[in-house]
Specification:
Strand order of the largest sheet: 1-2-3-4
Order of helices and strands: HHHHHHHEEEEHHEEEEH
Structural class: alpha+beta
Number of strands: 8
Number of helices: 10
Distance between the termini: 28 Å
Shape: globular
Largest sheet: 4 strands, antiparallel
Amino acid sequence: MDPLTQGFAGAALPQAAVRRTGAATAGLLGFLAGMAPDLDVLIRSSEDPLLFLEYHRQFTHSLVIIPFGGALCALLLHPLLGRRRGLTPLTTWLCCTLGYATHALLDACTTYGTQLFWPFSDVRVAWNVVSIIDPLFSLPLALAVGLAARTGRRGFAVAGLCWALAYLGLGVLQREQARALGEALARERGHAPVEVVAKPGFANILVWKTVYRAEGRFFVDAMRTGWAPLQCPGESLAVLDRARDLPWLDPASQQARDVERFRWFSAGYVALAAPGSDRVIDIRYSLVPNEIDALWSLQLNRAAEPAAHGAYRVHRGDSQAALPRLWHLLWAADC
């Protein structure tokens, strides 16, 4: 999730659970600790553009690291906040650990992938039940945390946590409905049985992006769930075959290794941006669910030295044009 939502979730749990301190203090400690795991984005290299993909949501997000992450936050925050507000080191650690603990689990509810079981496994867990940014999830949670801090009534924090859990539960139901709609569309195309993956669209859990693999291609469609279900067929691209699509690429080169690193990061959902292109894209994300308009990619260079890395690219796209199309999918009677 976005950093502020992570902070609000981190604040709500110690506000609701720790009665040895005021809700404002517990919330502040939990808020800061709840955002702390994302400091791993600072692990970067000017020489290796993909390094941050390997470390973001890795060891700082592991379940086994939670008590140690909480301890490190407490070590920094107790002299600044905890001691000045009369807390014992143990109470500061408890608030920080509870706040830290919410982060990885909330991230795993999104689609990006979180290494919850590092160092035992590098599997990127993604439950696909909520968008990385979703105001309907975040704003009520933020309001509850603010009211708990202002009034000292922990019931507001409890209500905020209940809202968050209920919203995530609704996301699970919507995801399964989207998958069922996607499977039905695949059957209509003669692609059955296939595994359909459903991911929430941008900032909502009503319109979903479904992806499945059949006949050597990825098929990307949009499914609207809820009271007015709608299937909106989209685009398809050939699954990346390095030998076929990039015959010029030396398998022993660093760029070839970068392609495999990017494939791992993308959970295998990689394709060329277009036939003959030298750009490998992650097809999981786009502003409009039934379009293949990747938000990031790996740009290769045919003239590069064997030791040279590929270039990681972020594509913002034309959001002014995309958002009206997304709005249409949310509310219109047709695609």
